[in-house]
Design goal:
5 helices, 268 residues, alpha/beta, single chain, 17 strands, Metallo-beta-lactamase, Chain A
Length: 268
C-alpha cells in the first residue's frame, strides 16, 4: 500500500488546519464489539434512528446509526463521522438538520444514492475532513482523494481505501474496477469495513481482522444474498450488517451465517 508520504502530508494538513489536535490512541486488533444493539443507546443523544453500540480496545464507545440505504453516522470519542450521507431515497428521508455537523465525511463514489452534494455541504464546517474517491473530489472541488490501496491517518486513527467493483459480466459498467472505494475505518483498534458498491471480489481475501462489516446486497448493482454470504465467510467479521439492500430479501442471511452476528437494520 502507498502510505508514508501520503500519511505525513495528511497529518501536516490536519494539524495546520487546527483540527482538534492529532490525538494518539493505542491499537489492538483483538478488540471485540459488544453484542448489544439498541434503538436508543443509553447516554446517547435522542436520535430517531436504529443504533448499535460497540466498545473499542481501551473502552471507548462507538455508536453506529442506520440512517438510510448506504448512509450511516458514527458517534465516537466526541467526533461525528458520516459515511455516504444522503438525504432522500425514494419515499425515505433523513433530516440532517436534526443531526450533528460532521468531523469526518467518507464518500465511496459518485452515484446519487451515495453522493449528495447538498447534504455534504450542510454537514461541512471549516474543520470537516472530507475523504472521497477521485471523481467525487473533482465534482466537489475539494476533499482528500484516496485511491484503492492507500492508507492515511487522522487524529491518531486510520482509514484504508480498498477496491469496490462489479465482476458479473455485463454489470462492470455500474462500478468499474479502480474507480470507487470501500473503506476500512479503524477507531482505537475497532476495525469497521464499509464495502461500498461491490461484488464478492478476490481482494476481500486480503482484508483481515474485521470487527464490523457493512456489505451491500442488491443485484444488478452489488451482491446477491449468495454472494454476500460467500464474502462474509471470507471476511469473517464479528458483526455483519447487510446494507444497500433495497427490495432484496436479506432475511435468510442470518441462518446462512450461524457463526457471525448478523444484524438487519433499515438499510433499504
Amino acid at each position: 500500500m502507498k502510505t508514508t508520504g501520503y500519511m505525513i502530508s495528511l497529518l501536516a494538513f490536519i494539524c495546520a488546519a487546527g483540527l482538534a489536535g492529532c490525538k494518539n490512541f493505542s491499537k489492538n486488533k483483538s478488540a471485540a464489539p459488544s453484542p448489544e444493539a439498541e434503538t436508543k443507546a443509553e447516554g446517547a443523544p435522542a436520535i430517531p434512528y436504529e443504533c448499535d453500540t460497540f466498545t473499542t480496545t481501551s473502552g471507548k464507545t462507538v455508536r453506529i446509526y442506520a440512517l438510510v440505504h448506504a448512509s450511516s453516522m458514527i458517534d465516537y470519542d466526541g467526533m461525528t463521522i458520516y459515511v455516504d450521507p444522503v438525504a432522500k431515497l425514494g419515499d425515505r428521508t433523513v433530516d440532517y438538520s436534526a443531526l450533528r455537523m460532521a468531523d469526518i465525511i467518507f464518500i465511496t463514489h459518485e452515484h446519487a444514492d451515495h453522493f449528495d452534494k447538498e447534504t455534504i455541504a450542510s454537514l461541512t464546517t471549516s474543520s470537516t475532513i472530507l475523504i472521497t474517491n477521485s471523481n467525487c473530489a473533482q465534482m466537489l472541488g475539494k476533499g482528500i482523494a484516496m485511491a484503492n490501496g492507500e492508507t492515511l491517518s487522522y487524529y491518531g486513527d486510520s482509514v484504508e481505501a480498498v477496491p469496490a467493483y462489479n465482476t458479473t459480466k455485463g454489470r462492470e459498467k455500474y462500478h468499474p474496477k479502480g474507480r470507487d472505494n470501500g473503506y476500512i475505518i479503524t477507531l482505537d483498534g475497532l476495525r469497521i469495513y464499509f464495502a461500498g458498491d461491490t461484488e464478492d471480489i478476490p481482494e476481500m481475501a486480503k482484508i483481515k481482522d474485521i470487527d464490523i462489516a457493512f456489505l451491500p446486497c442488491n443485484q444488478p448493482y452489488t451482491m446477491t444474498p449468495e454472494q454476500l454470504v460467500k464474502a462474509a465467510k471470507v471476511l469473517s467479521p464479528k458483526v455483519l450488517f447487510p446494507y444497500h439492500y433495497g427490495q432484496t430479501d436479506v432475511s435468510g442471511i442470518q441462518a446462512a451465517l450461524p457463526d457471525i452476528d448478523v444484524r438487519i437494520r433499515q438499510y433499504q
